[in-house]
Design a protein that fits this description.
Strand order of the largest sheet: 6-7-8-3-9-10
Largest sheet: 6 strands, mixed
Low-confidence stretches: none
Number of helices: 9
Structural class: alpha/beta
Strand content: 15-25%
Oligomer: single chain
Length: 253
Amino acid sequence: MTNHVQINASHLTIGYDKFILLNDISFTVNQHDIFIIMGASGGGKTSLLRALTGLVQPINGKIFINDVDFVHAPLEQKLEIMQKCGILYQSGALFSSMTLAENIALPLQQYTDYSEKTIQELISLKLALVGLKGFEDFYPAEISGGMKKRAGLARALALDPDIVYFDEPSAGLDPISSKLLDDLIIDLNQSLGTTFVVVTHELNSIFDIGTNSIFLDTETKGISARGNPKDLLKNPPNATVYNFLTRGGTSHA
């Protein structure tokens, strides 16, 4: 099956006031990719993610999502695109005063005209998808950190998005919970065909789930490597990328 370009970032410059984080970068995310945005701290990974999700306006450049110029689209069209994108924030960002079911119901109630019965069925389905069947009535404080991330992912999947964005999904998780989340991302990518864009510095996640990637270089403020992370490890384009991918002597064949 031929992969189609889902996101095409063209000549993006991102920064705050006169401080430039990323200068004139271009890249594509193909349909069904698990696309990794990696690099050292302070290199603009989260800022790039915010630009891709419409939370930050680039200084220059365009972001095409499914062939629509997302940056310059009218607000109504931009909101339509955003409804087809899910976001899993670093903390999970669940509303603490609401049950998991109520958290997942929010986007369904806000953006669809589904009946309450259909919404309840979808809530159960999304929680089952992430391994939380039967946890509808639990509050975020009653579940573990890994379960919160999975519940946040269930909410991100509520509207059957084409693309799901992650900001450091493994942050704060123990190695076992992190591995379970990685396995879940792979499973959902293969079973639903969803495209995932993941900001992470976790080597295990980068190698285990990444099918494509870009490396943001803090010195050049550009992209110094792109491609499957395992291929980049075998043929690193420069010492910075090699050192990043071999931290702690980790070996990934």
